[in-house]
Amino acid sequence: MAGGVTVELKGVEELKSHISRIANAAKLKRAVVEGTSMMLSTAKMRAVPGKFGSGALRNSIHMKVDEQRDQISGKIFTALEYAMYVEFGTGIIGENSNYPRAGQLGLSYAHYPWTYTPDNGERFFRTEGQPARPFMYPALAENKSQIKQRIINALREDVRR
What is the pLDDT of the chain when averaged over all its residues? Predict the structure, then answer.
């Protein structure tokens, strides 16, 4: 056949590499989503309402997975102002709760009792604080090895292809 057609493809190796990264990113994202979901479940399970609690803290805990150019990250969070007081405790009692890694976080506690009124001054209560009732840190600590393994497995799957 005279005058045949020649097709030349340039950048095939680069294209293969790009396709591999896309497949790997999807697997990694799935592993991060699953791991973040595990942390979310644990945090909600541990955020047990106190004696007069409404469950607002538990219901306020959410997760978010962000994917940027070369990074996938998952986080759990709450926007409730009092969540940090539940997590870390308050006052003398909170400081003596032995929160995991408290020294590394630079926490500062009141070293004296204080008085508060929950009902516009009809009753007054004296307190030395409340104990830490961690729910966020244990959610990471309890799931860390499983999350790490999920990510390792996602990477291994891609390498085997």
Answer: 83
* Model pLDDT for residues 86-118, shown as the tens digit of each residue: 999 999 999 998 887 777 788 889 999 999 898
Task: State the alpha helices, DSSP H only, in the chain.
Answer: 12-46, 56-60, 83-88, 91-95, 102-105, 136-160
Against a cut of 0.70, is the pTM above it? Answer: yes
* Burial category of 11 from C-beta neighbours within 10 Å (exposed 0-12, middle 13-18, buried 19 and up): exposed
Sign of CA dihedral 90, 91, 93, 98: positive
Token couple for 50: 């106190």
Q: How many CB atoms lie within 10 A of CB 14?
A: 9
Q: Are 158 and 19 in contact (CB under 8 A)?
A: no
Q: How far apart are CA 143 and CA 39, in angstroms?
A: 6
CA–CA dist 135, 108 (Å, integer): 19
Burial-class residue 135 by CB neighbours within 10 Å (0-12, 13-18, 19+). Answer: buried
